[in-house]
Design goal:
Layout lengths: L1 H7 L5 E3 L9 H9 L4 E4 L5 H14 L4 E6 L8 H17 L15 H11 L3 E5 L5 H9 L3 E6 L2 H10 L3 E5 L5 E2 L14 H11 L4 E4 L5 H9 L4 E4 L1 H4 L8 H9 L5 E4 L7 E4 L2 H5 L10 H16 L21 H10 L3
Parallel strand pairs: 1-9, 2-3, 3-4, 4-5, 5-6, 6-8, 8-9
Antiparallel strand pairs: 7-11, 10-11
Length: 344
């Protein structure tokens, strides 16, 4: 473990899972890194210019190593009938928020190659990927540039493919994890295997380090990850309640009020399976015909933004993992220390 942590440039086996959207905060990333963990910026939804701005802010706050995460490009196409059907399902929700029915934007996602070019220029310590295999050529190029490269797997076959592509370590994303599923073989989102079952299978199958992710929110979860053979652990949901995480008041209040049974997997907001809190939108859209990801993500964005601005959590994608009830409001540095203590 020590050599891998040395490669990352951090003293503790605590990685902040890269969270996109509201949680993609320079203050939070810097606070985790300053405390001895690895802060990671979820940059999948950020424009290249915004990535540059946020990274400058991170570096103004900390000189410690940090990582940047991107989504591998997804194959998708526009099915006009499904797009229109989804728009019509959005119509009453848009009306309730005082919005017109969203129109399909010219671009539904950021340009991956442009994002990647900026990330390579900015030279973070770590570049991590989800939703796919970046491939041997890109991994080798990043390694040659001095980057530590991480891939995300939800099953052994994905992990072996990532290892063959040359990643330094594999993040084992159990189905307890919040946010979008990061797999890419079989179903578009990969497999739904729990962290307890997934981590030891990957440890047994791989020669590269395994980073446990999903359902880890306190020192007990860290101890369990170590016992399962992980080299480090990635924690996301617990950091959502960190004092440095700039969530909207409605999002934060929903997290504070949530119970264990409120967790759900849904495609309603983005078209791709993701774990968060169930709300009126996820329930009412459960049977909606969905276009390919990322089209629903682009169409539902105005509703999510209006929901946040109006304090209406039923219209927001409240991404969070199953360990949410274990999370507490505290400074990020305190959480890093508590998590690290569980590894001792």
């Amino acid at each position: 473990m020590k050599s891998f942590l040395q490669k990352l440039g951090i003293p503790t086996p605590v990685l902040m899972a890269p969270m996109a959207g509201e949680a993609a905060s320079a203050a939070l990333v810097a606070a985790v890194s300053e405390a001895g963990g690895l802060g990671q910026l979820g940059a999948a939804y950020l424009s290249p210019a915004r990535i540059r701005t946020v990274v400058a802010d991170i570096r103004a706050r900390s000189d410690k190593p940090f990582g940047i995460n991107l989504f591998c490009p997804q194959p998708w196409s526009i099915d006009s009938a499904r797009v229109e059907a989804y728009r019509q399902r959005l119509a009453p929700h848009a009306q309730a928020l005082g919005l017109p029915v969203p129109e399909l934007p010219a671009a539904c996602e950021e340009d991956f190659e442009a994002q990647l070019a900026v990330v390579r220029e900015l030279q973070p310590a770590v570049v991590s990927f989800a939703m796919g295999d970046p491939g041997p050529a890109l991994v080798q190029a990043l390694r040659d540039e001095g980057r530590v490269v991480l891939g995300t797997a939800t099953q052994v076959s994905e992990a072996l493919q990532l290892q063959d592509s040359g990643v330094h370590a594999v993040v084992a994303q159990g189905c307890e994890a919040g946010g979008h599923r990061g797999g890419f073989l079989g179903r578009p989102e990969g497999a739904l295997i729990g962290t307890m079952a997934l981590v030891p299978q990957l440890v047994d199958a791989l020669y590269v380090p395994v980073i446990a992710a999903g359902g880890i929110a306190d020192a007990r979860g860290m101890a369990a990850a170590r016992a399962l053979g992980a080299t480090a652990a990635a924690v996301g949901t617990a950091f959502l309640l960190a004092e440095e995480c700039p969530l909207s008041p409605a999002y934060r209040e929903a997290l504070l009020q949530a119970r264990d049974a409120d967790s759900t997997l849904t495609r309603a907001f983005s078209g791709r399976e993701a774990r968060g809190l169930a709300n009126a939108f996820t329930r009412e859209m459960a049977d909606a015909p969905l276009p390919d990801f990322p089209i629903p993500n682009a169409l539902s964005r105005p509703l999510r933004q209006a929901g946040a601005a109006q304090g209406r959590a039923d219209y927001m994608s409240l991404w969070a993992g199953q360990a949410l009830p274990l999370a507490r409001t505290k400074p990020a540095a305190q959480l890093v220390r508590e998590l690290a203590a569980g590894w001792a």
